[in-house]
Amino acid sequence: MLLSGGLCEKANCQKTEAPSREYEKCWTYIGRFLWQFGIIESFVNEIFVELYDLENVAFPFVGLIDTRKKLTLIDEGLKEKGSVDHKRLIERVHDLHNLRNVLAHSNFFEASEGMHVDHINHQGKRWGGLGDKKREEEGNYLGFAELDRRTV
Q1: pTM of the shown model
Q2: Considering just the CA atoms, what is the radius of gyration of the chain in Å?
Q3: pLDDT tens, residue by residue, 103-135
Q4: Within the chain, where are the H helices?
Q5: What is residue 4's predicted lDDT score, i.e. its pLDDT?
Q6: Which of 19, 53, 67, 115 is the most buried (most CB within 10 A)?
Q7: Where are the domains of the chain?
């Protein structure tokens, strides 16, 4: 087996019984976060279309541009219109997008009041977790309370 001796053993890949309540709790938190991030992406699309007056071409065009590029273009468009109050909001959406990528592209393991996330970024480094530094040292820990603070 490809993952034998490591991740697979930790995740109990060989077991066929129903998942634990802790895993179900992890799935619930991840699902809620991804659902809420989808709502944010919809708002990003609407702002992008409105800002650049793309009503007539929005459907085929907007889907071709990834969220980060849209955020950059929104930032530039708002700066051009004289806005300066949007910077923090755009940074927050980028942070949420980073967390979305971690959750969407990672394996996770139950942990007390949270989960350990097995994620390696594009630079080949392990994801450092969020929140409590002591808990992060235990291995890419993401607490449910911290995830709740980052949801909408």
Answers
A1: 0.79
A2: 19
A3: 999 888 888 899 988 888 778 877 776 655 554
A4: 7-10, 21-51, 58-62, 67-80, 87-104, 133-136, 144-149
A5: 41
A6: 115
A7: 22-149
